[in-house]
Specification:
Blueprint lengths: L1 H13 L11 H25 L11 H9 L3 E6 L2 E6 L7 H16 L2
Antiparallel strand pairs: 1-2
């Protein structure tokens, strides 16, 4: 358990939210720290939900997660009263495509 916590702290420091605390006020820094850990846990949940943390890919650390899932170049268009997401060609297959397909299947399963 301790190793998991230390890994989360390392990810937060490498991802920059905990590298610089914003203020000299303890309450502000505490809120910043908890929001950084919340964001990190949401990203872990996203990986689990999409099945990215399984064997072929392995659990992504913050840097890899941002590169492969979050900072993906794309255009969001509106066509026929629906939103269309056009992803850059280099991201149309691989980890992002798998996650996109899984989330799309979950959304269609949930209904309108």
């Amino acid at each position: 358990m301790r190793a998991l916590i230390e890994e989360k702290i390392k990810d937060s420091k490498l991802g920059a939210p905990l590298r610089h605390l914003l203020s000299g006020y303890e309450a502000v820094n505490r809120a910043w720290m908890w929001s950084a850990f919340l964001a990190l846990n949401i990203s872990t949940f996203l990986q689990s939900l999409c099945g990215i943390d399984t064997k072929p890919h392995g659990r992504a650390h913050g840097k890899r997660l941002r590169r492969e899932l979050i900072a993906v170049p794309a255009r969001v268009l509106r066509h026929a009263r629906t939103f269309v997401v056009r992803v850059a060609p280099e991201h149309r297959d691989g980890v992002f495509a798998d996650a996109w397909a899984t989330l799309g299947a979950m959304a269609s399963f949930a209904g309108p």
